[in-house]
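[Discussion] Sanity-checking designs against the backbone

I'm trying to build intuition for which residues belong where. Below is a structure token string of 168 positions. I'd appreciate it if someone posts a full sequence so I can compare it with mine line by line.
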């Protein structure tokens, strides 16, 4: 009973571990421009392959966690995560039909979209004093790290979720 509850919450746990790793292990002052968006990679994967476990509420909570840990304005990451989850959900079949090698280039497009949303919201608050360099550095770093993170998520998905479901 307890194990099945933990297994069903595995996507949420991986997203929250990615948020903590992204914001605590990669300090902002050292990795400001080339800082991968681990949370978005995890949200992207789980929304594509386990839509029942990853929805807008999980995206909202993950975004709020990133906002609280990083000190960003509350709701900045949350709004962009929710919008991206809705877009990924809408285009899910099309994205799943893409070959895995091309999928690596789709992730930075979503990161660029997320950064554009965050830049637009930040410009509403602070004007032109926002750091626009993040708009280009984050997709490049995410594209470089996405294959490793997605491979890890595939291994977790296969060993924990699919094998546990097959045992029932």
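Best answer:
Here's mine. Compare freely.
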């Amino acid at each position: 009973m307890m194990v099945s509850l933990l297994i069903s919450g595995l996507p949420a746990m991986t997203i929250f571990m990615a948020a903590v790793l992204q914001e605590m292990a990669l300090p902002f002052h050292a990795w400001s421009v080339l800082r991968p968006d681990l949370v978005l990679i995890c949200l992207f994967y789980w929304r594509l392959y386990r839509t029942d476990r990853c929805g807008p509420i999980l995206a909202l909570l993950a975004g709020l966690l990133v906002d609280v840990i990083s000190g960003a304005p509350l709701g900045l990451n949350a709004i962009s995560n929710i919008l991206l989850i809705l877009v990924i959900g809408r285009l899910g079949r099309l994205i799943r039909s893409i070959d895995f090698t091309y999928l690596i280039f789709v992730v930075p497009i979503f990161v660029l979209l997320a950064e554009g949303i965050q830049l637009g919201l930040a410009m509403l608050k602070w004007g032109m004093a926002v750091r626009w360099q993040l708009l280009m550095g984050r997709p490049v770093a995410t594209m470089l790290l996405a294959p490793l993170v997605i491979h890890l998520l595939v291994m977790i998905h296969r060993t924990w979720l699919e094998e546990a479901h097959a045992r029932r």
